[in-house]
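Subject: design request, 323 residues
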């Protein structure tokens, strides 16, 4: 269920109640579109309590489907705030998220939303170090909020970039800042570590630029572990949205040299693992290593598919005898 406030001709979500850590915000409540999340909406902090106290009698309630309802105080489920929030799904109608809406939601791990959110509040993801996955649906004809989101999330981030035609799977490496003091001069310098900050600048007028993203691959090769580098190259080849021929060749050359790292990075995704074997594993020794990896993980279905592919690609030669 949701606590909400009606503002003119739209609805602002104040907070959520329920069981479990998954929250799906409805697109409409009654006949009105849900366009906002209030400040501190999912934060278990004094700021949220203060926000709710200012609403007075303007707080209304609805069920999970967005149907207005009323509940007795004793029947209210617990608030899904702070450590209880894990997955959040926002509808395409959302245009604004208030300040510190997810403040200190330590177990928040996945966000799905649309790029048409026009107003992202300050300090939105403060304390949200657990977010690793972002599903972003790109809306044509509107300013994208993608840069605003990924620039606030400094940890290693896996983004599913959905368009009407295709999907791209992207990895944004980790970045972090360090303050270094120069004591004699009494000056503090800020040093940026990791190449993740470069990937946060692959935008032009808020639109994501794939060619800028792909051009940064040499930096990843030098600064990031093979696990991440191989996964980044593999996902771009697997979902080659706007991938230029020269960048494809760069990724493919790297992947052929680091097949084992790519296999280890994707061993939990059977479809992707099988695609890697089919497209890039041309050597029998490398192929057998991938089969061993599937066997170690007790993935019998994947192992069966690999065996079928192996028989086709490396058929056993019939023995001939001469008298």
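Subject: RE: design request

Done. Sequence follows.
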């Amino acid at each position: 269920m949701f606590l909400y406030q009606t503002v003119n001709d739209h609805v602002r979500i104040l907070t959520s109640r329920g069981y479990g850590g998954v929250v799906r915000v409805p697109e409409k409540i009654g006949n009105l579109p849900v366009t906002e999340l209030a400040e501190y909406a999912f934060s278990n902090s004094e700021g949220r309590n203060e926000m709710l106290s200012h609403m007075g009698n303007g707080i209304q309630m609805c069920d999970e489907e967005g149907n207005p309802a009323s509940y007795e105080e004793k029947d209210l489920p617990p608030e899904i705030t702070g450590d209880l929030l894990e997955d959040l799904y926002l509808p395409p109608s959302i245009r604004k998220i208030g300040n510190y809406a997810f403040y200190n939601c330590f177990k928040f791990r996945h966000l799905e939303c649309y790029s048409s959110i026009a107003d992202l509040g300050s300090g939105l993801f403060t304390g949200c170090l657990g977010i690793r996955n972002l599903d972003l649906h790109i809306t044509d004809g509107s300013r994208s909020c993608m840069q605003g989101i990924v620039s606030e999330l400094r940890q290693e981030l896996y983004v599913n970039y959905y368009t009407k035609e295709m999907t791209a799977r992207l990895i944004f490496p980790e970045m972090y800042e360090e303050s270094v003091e120069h004591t004699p001069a009494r000056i503090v310098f800020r040093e940026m570590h990791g190449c993740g900050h470069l990937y946060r600048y692959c935008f032009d007028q808020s639109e994501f630029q794939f060619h800028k993203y792909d051009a940064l691959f040499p930096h990843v090769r030098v600064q990031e572990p093979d696990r991440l580098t191989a996964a980044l190259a593999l996902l771009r080849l697997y979902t080659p949205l706007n991938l230029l021929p020269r960048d494809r060749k760069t990724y493919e050359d790297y992947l052929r040299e680091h097949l084992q790292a790519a296999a280890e990075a994707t061993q939990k995704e059977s479809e992707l693992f099988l695609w890697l074997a089919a497209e890039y594993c041309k050597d029998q020794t490398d192929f057998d290593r991938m089969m061993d990896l599937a066997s170690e993980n007790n993935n019998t279905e994947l192992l069966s598919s690999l065996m079928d592919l192996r028989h086709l690609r490396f058929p056993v030669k019939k023995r001939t005898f001469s008298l």
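The chain has a mean pLDDT of 90.
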